[in-house]
From TrEMBL:
Family the entry assigns: Belongs to the ABC transporter superfamily.
Name of the protein in its database record: Sugar ABC transporter
Keywords: ATP-binding, Cell membrane, Membrane, Nucleotide-binding, Repeat, Sugar transport, Translocase, Transport
Domain ABC transporter residues, every copy: 6-241, 252-492
UniProt cross-references to CDD domains, sorted A to Z: ABC_Carb_Monos_I (cd03216), ABC_Carb_Monos_II (cd03215)
SUPFAM superfamilies in UniProt: P-loop containing nucleoside triphosphate hydrolases
Entry annotated with the keyword Repeat: yes
Cellular compartments annotated: Cell membrane
TM regions (residue ranges): none
GO cellular component term, pick one: plasma membrane
Lineage top rank: taxon: Bacteria
Cited InterPro entries: AAA+_ATPase, ABC_carbohydrate_import_ATPase, ABC_transporter-like_ATP-bd, ABC_transporter-like_CS, P-loop_NTPase
Keyword Cell membrane: yes
Amino acid sequence: MTDPVLSLKGISKRYGKLEVLKNVSLDVHAGEVVALLGENGAGKSTLSGIIAGSRAPSEGSMAWLGQDYAPASPREAIDKGVVLIHQELKLLPELSIAENVFIGRWPMKNGVVDRAQMVRRAQEQLSRLNLHIPATRKVGGLSTANQQLIEIAKALALNAKLLILDEPTAALGGVETEALFEQVRKLRSEGVGIIYISHRMDEIKRITDRIVVLRDGERVQDFADSATPVRTIVESMVGRSLDRLFPPVPDPTSKTVLKVDGLTSVDGAFNDVSFEVKAGEIFGIAGLIGAGRTELVRAIAGADPVRSGTVTLDGEQLALKSPNDAIAKGIVMVPEDRKDQGLVVSHRIGENIVYANLDKMGSRWLMPAMKRRFADAAIKAFGVKGRSDQLASDLSGGNQQKVVIAKWLTRNPRVVVLDEPTRGIDVGARAGIYDIIVGLAKSGVAVIVVSSDLEEILGVSNRIMVLAQGRQTGILNRSEANDVSVMELATQ
């Protein structure tokens, strides 16, 4: 094999006393796709950030095309040909698609921005991804899936020599994913090296050449063949035998906690939806992208207004004008977008947990020791890999999600709504989220789970309601729900 385009030797990273990477070495060659796997908190994003210039290693060295490589910023890395596509979107909504694709490196003509060339080149990259949207359109208002494809189009326009894809399909549907895979294969054939981070094992087996596994910040396993059995890969990630992914789902009680009757949105996202959730029941909501699932649960949680219909909790009809109204009644929601809607990422973990529980603290004056004890108890209870004084922005996506869950579950709610609870979370960490969900049901909480992952929705739900284009097309019992029956209803 030829010399690697990128070579890492003994990379370590510490935040104070917390060591998140420990002596990691890695080579990536031209024209290969290397899967980088590990549980959330294993160090994948930190290592990617070091390669892409957004973080500096505490120890170790890197080489790029045989020369010393220590980028002081993402701009320096991009200039070398190293591009990171983040899991979290970083587009500017008020700018056009073309402006986002070429921001900071505008094509110029006679001293001014050549907008015609910029739009033409951006449109070419969108076409490569089968995204047929005018490049002159503003990014604001586009779906998450389309915004993710625009992030990928930015990288394609950079003519990268090394591309790092961090959970690139987390927000994509099947058609968009296939278009991305087509481009990955094309880039590989052109000699581009690719580091591919994903929690979706079917993708790893389809698109990657070899697999590198991190656990607790260390490189613990290499698999030269991506055809290695999934169970073997996952067990190396979690460091234990994986007996099961989904825990046994308990039977609910006969008591109705939440009743939704004829709920209709103000903008047509969903119409005339009715269902009940029992105490101790996990009620799944399935459907394709654009079916109205998120809009429905946001309305139930008081975040969006409705045109008609009712929400009843424990026999009391609610008049929800805001999320605060729902929270006060005992309905909490873990949103799909944890960074923008679930956390203040620039604040500390402990502060995020306390913010959601100020009325539960029992005192007008919050002493630092009181806040720390409260936050530490929640961190321990929900397995967050972090300290209360650590910034939420320093956490992996999975641990950020656990913080969002922890801050709401410490309120002992009656209804918990989880919208895409394991989006961007690896297989090992997902098992911990499922344990939390089932534990809530066992304690008598009514749980609603929205998920695009069919295996997940089938694995954790007592019943599944399917939406298609805002319409309720059916509710399936666990015994009759399978991938075929759900998809038949989702495509009506």
